[in-house]
Design brief:
mainly alpha, 0% strand, disordered N terminus, transmembrane helix, Membrane transporter protein, membrane, transmembrane
Length: 310
């Protein structure tokens, strides 16, 4: 009986690869439906708040399309949203984390489904990397969040600069570069899973996983495109849980989140169309830009924080 059970599990996980990919898509779809219902109920209960004239829905809608178009191409929606919401005063600093998380879940779900269906990657590798990020997000209160945030940001920023430098050097043919694999095995798979757990934990202290995931995928020799289904699916599943708590406590800007997430879905569709015409070389240059941009933001934040403390 035990032997037959083991053989069944092996068949499902390693022979029935189509089933694993389909299971992930179904899971994403289920999370999206449940989350949409939960968010929709909260918005209906506070529908009078949505009728507020500030900010103007039209501008938020345009920004939502722009934010998630770029997000679909691998540019952090957290960073772009913050760059828009802070100077416009659309969202208070207190509500900013909740708004960023709440508005992102449904677009993430659509991205995850889209990229899982079109990007070639071994299902076992995809499932384990995505699952590791979700586990990291769940366990983070006992792990990463207890570490000094400044130290974490400093080392991550340095790591991103190094990773970006190596990728840039390979594109300029200064060093030999690889990045064509679609599957991880053995030690590389273990390293990838451990790092994804850390990235899932870092999400909860405001450090996005996009740049980190792309750097890791490239460093492990995978095709850069593999980063997209991994980071989108992982973000959808890990961010959904935290966002539900922001909704429960009402600690987010309902109007901005509602409009941005609705029109953000249109941005995702446009982004998927653009992505379909990309080649690996273009994606690699985007990865380089994202790595250096993210590192620069982290360094800038650390410098500003030190000035305030002085």
């Amino acid at each position: 009986m035990q032997v037959s059970g083991i053989l069944f599990f092996y068949t499902i996980c390693f022979k029935g690869k189509w089933l694993m990919r389909s299971a992930l898509i179904v899971m994403l779809l289920l999370v999206g439906i449940l989350y949409a219902g939960y968010l929709g109920r909260d918005l209906w209960r506070h529908r009078q708040e949505l009728k507020s004239t500030t900010p103007a829905s039209g501008w938020v809608a345009i920004s939502g399309v722009f934010i998630f178009l770029l997000s679909t191409l691998g540019v952090s929606d957290f960073a772009v949203s913050t760059a828009i919401y802070s100077p416009t005063k659309w969202v208070t600093m207190k509500q900013l984390p909740g708004t960023l998380n709440v508005q992102g879940v449904l677009p993430f779900v659509m991205m995850g489904i889209g990229f899982t269906g079109v990007v070639k990657v071994a299902p076992v590798t995809l499932i384990l990397l995505v699952g590791a990020q979700v586990v990291g997000a769940i366990l983070s209160p006992r792990l990463v969040v207890k570490l000094p945030e400044r130290t974490i940001k400093w080392w991550i920023a340095c790591g991103l600069v190094v990773a970006g430098g190596f990728i840039l050097a390979s594109r300029l043919h200064l060093i030999a570069g690889n990045g064509t694999a679609t599957e991880l095995t053995g030690g590389k798979l273990l390293i990838g899973c451990l790092l994804q757990m850390v990235y899932g934990a870092l999400n909860n202290i405001g450090i996005g996983s996009y740049a980190l995931t792309t750097a890791t995928v490239y460093a492990l020799g995978l095709n850069p495109l593999v980063a997209f289904p991994v980071m989108m699916s992982g973000s959808a599943l890990s961010v959904a849980a935290g966002s539900s708590m922001f909704i429960h406590y009402g600690d987010y800007n309902r109007k901005v989140a509602a409009v941005a997430t609705s029109f953000g879905l249109l941005g995702v569709l446009l982004g998927l169309v653009v992505f379909a015409h990309f080649n690996v070389a273009i994606v690699t240059w985007i990865v380089i830009g994202v790595l250096f941009y993210t590192a620069g933001n982290l360094f800038y934040g650390l410098v500003q924080q030190r000035r305030v403390e002085k």
